Amino acid sequence: MDTRNKIKSDNRKHPRYGMVVDLDRCKGCGSCSIACAVENNQQPATPDMNNRTGVTWMRLYKVHNGEPFPDSRAVFVPMFCQQCDDTPCLYVCPQNAVELDPMTGIVAQIPERCFGCRYCMAACPYEARYFNWWDPVWPEGMEKTLNPDVSPRMRGVVEKCNFCHGRWQKARAKAAAEGRRELREDEYVPACVESCPMGALTFGNLDDPDSKVSKLVKDPDTFKILGQFGTKPKVYYRTTRSWVRRAVNRDVYSEKKEKVHG
Amino acid sequence: MDKQLIVRGVTRMEFKRFITYLIPWFILLGIGLYAMYLVFRYGLNHTNMDNRFAFGLWIYFDLAIIALGAGAFFTGLLLYVFKRHEFKSVINSAVVIGFICYSGAIAALVVDVGQPLRAWFTLYRPNAHSMLAEVTFCLTLYLFVLAVEYVPIVLKNRKLKQIPSFLVFEFKLHTFMPILAGIGALLSFFHQGSLGGMFGVLNGQPFAFRETVFVFPSTFFLFVLSAIAAGPSFVLLTTWIVSKISGKRVVTKNVFMSLGKISGILLIVYVLFKSIDSLIWLNKTSPAVGFSAADHYGFAPFGIWILSVEIIVLGLIPGLILISKKLRAKTPWLLTGAVLACAGVALNRFVTTIQTLSLPTLPFADFLTYVPTWEEVAIFLMVIAYGVIVYSFSFRYLPLFPQERELNRR
C-alpha cells in the first residue's frame, strides 16, 4: 500500500495548509522575501545574476494602476508557489520530483530526484519555480547562518516555496515527543508569515472551519489569482480595492490592461 | 585504402578534397564541443535562458529536427509496411538522416538539462502522467531502433562485406526490417505526438493549452501529422542537395515526385486540422480562461501574421504546390514546396516553444524576449556539423542510394 492510500485508510483528518495574502496590508518591505531566503538556505545573489536568474521563492511584484500623477497608485503582490491541489508541475515532471503531500496538502519539490529539465517551470502559470543556474556559493562566514533543518540545493535543479516544510517537520517531531498527533494552529508557521510586520500573511488549515485562514477565505474580497485555470491554488489574495483586484487578477470577462512593473 | 572502401561502381571526390570540404564542419564541431565543456563545467548560466524562459534555442531545435527526422520512420513505414517499393532508393539515406536527427537531438538535450547524470531516473522511476517521460522512453527506444537499422547499411561497406559473418548478420537483420519499421512507426507516433502533447497539456499556459481529443490534447495529433508531412519533404531536399553537391544523379525523378506528392497530401490534411484547432482554441478554449486572441497576438513581433504565415504561406501554399502534378513535375516548384513545408514545421515548433514562454500569463507580468548566447548557438551549430560529417562519411563509404550506380553509368 502506498503512502497516499495508507493515509486515506487511517480515517484521520489531515490538515490542508493554505495562506491568505492581504494586499491592502502589504507595504512591500520585503521582509518576507528575506526571511524566506534565510530560512530555506536560498543561494545568495551574485553580481552575475539578475531578477530573472536569481533564486527568490517569495517574489514581490510592484503593480501600478497606470494612471498619471496624482492618481497614480501601486500595490505590492507577493508571489510564491500557490500550492495547487490540481498541480500542473506535478503532472508534467518526468521523474516524480514533485509530490503533493497528502498529510499537509503541501506541494513538495525533491531536488535529489530533479534532473533540471525545467518542464515544471514552463508548466507553472505563477512563475513560482526557480532554477539553480549557478553553483550555490555562500560568502566566507555566511555559511554559518545556514539553517541545519533545510538542505541547500545543488546547481542544475529546480526549487520553490514549500511553506517552510522543515518547520512543519520540526513542529511535528515536537508534538510527537509530547504525545500529540495533531499540531496546534500556532505551532507551525512559515518564516514569511512570522516575519511580516504588517500581518499581511495569514496561514493555517483551510479545512478547519475555526481557523483564521478558513474564515478569511470565505470573505467576498478574497480571491485566487488565475483561479480559472482550474489548478485549485491554496494561496488566496485579498483586497477591498477594485482596481487592485482588476490589476492582479485576470477576470474572465474584464480585459482591462494595467501598466505594471514586475 | 580509401579507394577500397568506396562503394563499387561509383565515383567519389579525391580524399584530400573530401577532407578539405569537411574542415569548416570540424571547426564548428570543435567550437561546439568547447561550448559544451563550458556548460557542463560551469552550468547553464552560460545560456540566456532564465526562470521564465526555461526553454530556449536547444528545445526549439530538438523539436524541429525531430519533426524533420520523421522522414526516416515514415519512409520505412511506406516501404516495408505499405510496400511502396519506389522508396527503396532513399530508405538508406532516410535512416542515416533519422539517426543523425535523433542522436543530435539527444546530444542537445543532454546539455540542456541541469543534471544530465540523473536522466536515467526517468527510465527507472517514471511519472506515467508526464508527456516528457513518454518522450524520453520513445526517443531512447527509437534511437536504438535507428541504430539497428543503420548497422546493415554500415555492413554493406565494400570491405566489411568481405567478412562472411558480417554478411550473414546483415542478411539476418534485413529479415527484421519490416518489424523494426513497424516498431519505429509506433514509437515515432508516440514521441512526435508527446512532444506536441507536452505543450498542449499545459493548462497554466493558455497559448499552448488545447482541447482534449480522446485522451490526448489536439497538439498530440497535429505534431504527428505535421512531422509526417514535412519528413518526406526533408528527405527530398537532402537527397537533392546531395545530388547537387556530388554532381551525380542519385535517385530517379519519380522518387522525388512521390515524396513530394505524399508530403503535399499530408500537408493539406494537416492545414485543415490545424485551422479547425486554431479556431476552436481562439473561440472556445482560450476565452474560457479569460485570454482573447489579442492577449496572444498583441505583442510585437508575434502578431497574428505569424499564425497566417504558418497556416497559409508555409502550409496551404506548399500543400497545393506539391499535390499539383503539373507543378511538382517542375524541379523549382517541387523544391519550393519542400522548402516551404520544412520551414512551416520549423515555424510551428518555434511558436510552440518560444512564443509560449515569451507571452505573459500573470496579468502583471511582462512580455519577455530571449536571445541565445554564443554557447547556445555554438552547440546548435555543432549538432548540424555533426550531421554533415556523419552524412558525408556515410555517403562516401556506404551505399546510401542503390540507384546511383545505374543512373551514372556511362
Give a written overview of the molecule.
The complex is a heterodimer of chains A (262) and B (410). Chain A has 8 helices and 11 strands. By secondary structure, chain A is α+β, with helices and mostly antiparallel strands. Chain A has one domain (3-251): Alpha-Beta Plaits, CATH 3.30.70. Chain A is globular and about 50 Å long. With 410 residues, chain B is mainly alpha-helical. Chain B has one domain: Formate dehydrogenase/DMSO reductase fold (Up-down Bundle), CATH 1.20.1630. Helix content of chain B is 71%, strand content 1%. Chain B is built from 16 helices and 2 strands. Chain B has a two-stranded antiparallel ribbon with strand order 1-2. In chain B, strand 1 (212-213) and strand 2 form a beta hairpin. In chain B, helix 9 packs across helix 14. The two termini of chain B are 25 Å apart. The mean pLDDT of chain B is 92. Chains A and B meet through helix 3, helix 4, strand 6 and strand 11 of A and helix 7 of B.
